[in-house]
Amino acid sequence: MKQSLPCLTKIRAAYSSLSEKERKVANYILHDPKRIIHSTINQVADDLDIADATVFRFCKRIGFSGFQAMKIALASEIVTPVQDIHETIQEDDDEKAITEKVFRSNIRTLEDTLLVMESAVFQQAVQALAHARKIDFYGNGGSGIIALDAHHKFIRTGLPSAAYRDSHFQAMSASQLTKDDVAVFISHSGTNRDLLEVLEVAKDNEVTTIGITNLAKSPLSKGVDHALFTVSQETEFRSEALASRLAQLCIIDALYVNVSMARKEKMKTSLQRMRKAVSMKKM
Q: Using alpha carbons only, what angle is made at residue 109 by residues 107 and 114, rounded to the nearest 5 degrees?
């Protein structure tokens, strides 16, 4: 995890991979960051009824050398605060308040995802896509919808592309790809068994692979050539995977625009043909 990330962003990014007791520490900090700055590790452990070692282990898990190092990082954030908005829906919230909290939560997801973006990895992914013979997008469940959106965008580039949401079709398609092709795997958890089996098929064929997944160590993030990460936090009314959809879509958008710029002249021809074909659908 990037050392330069804000402490609160690190906590949200790591949240899904934390143990139950470590999540207690995470919730404690996210609920009231100022409180922990003036607390000792013993006080935090006593408040949560956990061992001091659990608090220390939590600090290590999110990338700090210890409790004191985490407190220093957290204090610097609070002295120069970036407003931390929680999508905590209250029973007396009206429609306007609920809508605003959802919007602000989505904005935070995009901002946090941008913070963890590795420029070098993203550039490599763009170059691989721009020079691909064919691009396949794979995703199951909700991620399958993101795969379809990616195909909907990339078909404009003039590059042959396809999106598959059925595991059998995914495996069949991946078996036909070559080292000149790119396969993009979309999975929030990065642990979907069917998708990982397709990844192995693609790797056997020396296909260049890109993963779009949550910022955590997972079989998908470790297995692909280029891993692009999202950051999102689970709330009472939305799972973490649902909250990550906008970040996944934004990464797809950024890849599409970059590939379009890299293929500017060919892109113009492709768009002209597409606009002409689509225009016949209009009255």
A: 95
CA distances from 43 to 36, 39, 59, 221 (A): 9, 6, 15, 37
d(CA 39, CA 26): 15
Those residues whose C-beta lies under 8 Å from the C-beta of residue 177, and which sit 6 or more positions away, are: 134, 136, 183, 202, 205, 207
User: How many Å apart are CA 69 and CA 74, to the nearest integer?
Assistant: 9
pLDDT tens for 34-66 read 888 888 999 999 999 999 999 999 999 988 999
**Cα(83)–Cα(100) distance, integer angstroms:** 14
At 152, give phi and psi (nearest 5°).
Answer: -60, -35
Report d(CA 62, CA 36) in Å as an integer: 16
In three-state secondary structure terms, 175 is coil
Task: Say what the pTM is.
Answer: 0.74
At position 176, the amino acid (one-letter code) is Q
